[in-house]
From TrEMBL:
It is found in: Nucleus; Mitochondrion. This is ATP-dependent DNA helicase PIF1. Its EC number is 5.6.2.3. One of its GO terms (molecular function) is ATP binding. PANTHER family: ATP-DEPENDENT DNA HELICASE, ATP-DEPENDENT DNA HELICASE PIF1. DNA-dependent ATPase and 5'-3' DNA helicase required for the maintenance of both mitochondrial and nuclear genome stability. Keywords: ATP-binding, DNA damage, DNA recombination, DNA repair, DNA-binding, Helicase, Hydrolase, Isomerase, Mitochondrion, Nucleotide-binding, Nucleus. It is an enzyme of class 5 (isomerase). InterPro entries: DNA_helicase_pif1-like_DEAD, P-loop_NTPase, Pif1-like_2B_dom, PIF1_helicase, PIF1_RRM3_pfh1. Residues 272-314 form the DNA helicase Pif1-like 2B domain.
Amino acid sequence: MARKLVTAVPRSVIPVKLSKEQSSVLEAVSKGRSVFFTGSAGTGKSFLMKRIIGTLPPQHTFATASTGVAACHIGGTTLHAFAGIGSGRGTLEHCVQLASRAQVAQQWRKCKHLVIDEISMVDGEFFEKLEAVARVIRRNDQPFGGIQLIMCGDFLQLPPVTKGKEKVNFCFQTQAWKKCIQMNIELTEVRRQSDKSFIDVLQQIRLGRCPDYVYTTLRATAKQNIQRDGILATRLCTHKEDVNQINEHHLQKLNGEFKLFTSTDSDSVYTQQINGMCPVPDKLNLKVGAQVMLTKNLDVQKGLVNGARGIVIGYQKDNDGYPIVKFRCGMEEEIKPIRWSFKFSGGNISTRKQIPLKLAWAISIHKSQGMTLDCVEISLSRVFECGQSYVALSRAKCLEGLRVLDFEKSCVKANLEVLRFYHKLDLHKRMMQTSIGDY
Ligand SMILES: Nc1ncnc2c1ncn2[C@@H]1O[C@H](COP(=O)(O)OP(=O)(O)OP(=O)(O)O)[C@@H](O)[C@H]1O
C-alpha cells in the first residue's frame, strides 16, 4: 500500500483569530495596564500570551514562565533565570546584591514589559522579592520599578512547589500583587474541549467538587478501550520517578535495535539546564514500535501538533535515518530535527537541535501542564496536590480519549484560599457590573 509520507517541517500557519474576550486582554495590554488573566484549563491563556508577546517590542520584553517547560512553550526563559536572584530564599539585601551583577542588572533596566506564564506556580515570597528588587535595581519607586506585568495562569491548577510541610504561599496573597495588578480578567470560553458535558465535569473537578454524576462519568471511562492502530494511551503519573521507569521498561521490552538520536547543543555547558526546560532530551533512544509524542506544532491543519500521539514505524532509508511516525490522526511523517532556543541568566542564548519526539508510554502530570493530549490513562490514587487531578483530566480533548483508573471522590481537591480568591474576583466583577466587553 502506498504510504502517505511527507516530510514534517514547521509550515507557516494561518493566524487564528482571537476571541472577543482574548482581544479585550490584548487591548488592555496595549494600553500599558498591568494585567492578570486567568481561566480554566484550555481557555487559551498560553495561546493568547504568545500573541501578546508578538505585539510587544522585543528589546524591552522579557517572556518568562514559572517552569522550564512552560517557558519553552512561549519561547522564553524561566522567571528564576531572568531574575538572577537564585532561589530568592536569601535576604532581600542578598537578592539585590545578586541582581546587581552587571549582566543581570542590565536586563532588569532594559525590561519594560515582563511576561509571566503559569503564575500559579510562582511562590508568593519570591514574587515579593522580585517586586522589591525591581524597584531598587531600576531606581524607580513605582510598583515593580515601573515594569508592566502581563501574567496568566490558573490558581486552581498546580500550586508552587513546597518543601515538606511548608505552607503554600500564593502570589495573589502578597502585598506586591495588590500593588501591581491593575486588572484581573477571566477567560471563560474553553477551547480545548468541545463536548459541553465533559467541560461541565471538568469545571466541577476544578472547583473541588465531585457530585454523583461526575463520579459516575469518570468511573465509566475505566472500561474504555482508547487505543487505536497500535497507539496506546499515555499514562499520566503523579510521581515523576514512575515516568522514566515505565518508559524504560516498555522500550526495553520491544524487540529490535535501539537507535539513538543525540542532540546538537550549541554550548554543552548548558546541556543539563536545557534538559530541564526542553521538551526533548539530549539523548533520545528509540525502537520501532516505540510510543512517542510530538513536542512541537509541525502542521496544525493536519493535526501534527504538540502532544499528538504516534508510534515509530521505521526509519528513513536515505539521509540520516530519521524516524517515521504514524500518528493517531492517520498521518505518517518523517520527523526531522528542529532547533529550540533558550535564554539564560545574563541573557546568554543557547540552542538545541533534536528530533521533536519524546517517549510517551508515560509522562508526569507536572510536565503535562499546558498540554493538549490525544489519549490518556490516569491513575489518581496517589494524587498529593490540590489541582493535580484537574490538570491531569483537563489534558484530554474528549471523554472518549480518556481512561481514569481507580477514581475516588477523595482524588478531587481544590485549595480553599484559591477558591476564596476566585469568589472575590467574581464578586468584584458583578459589583462593578462590568463584562469583559467593558475593558
Ligand atoms: N482564539 C482561538 N482560536 C482557536 N483555537 C484557540 C484559540 N485560543 C486557544 N485556542 C486553542 O485552544 C487550545 C488550548 O489553548 P491553551 O493551551 O493556550 O490553553 P490554556 O488556557 O493555556 O490551557 P492550560 O491552562 O491547560 O495551560 C490550544 O489548542 C489552542 O491552540
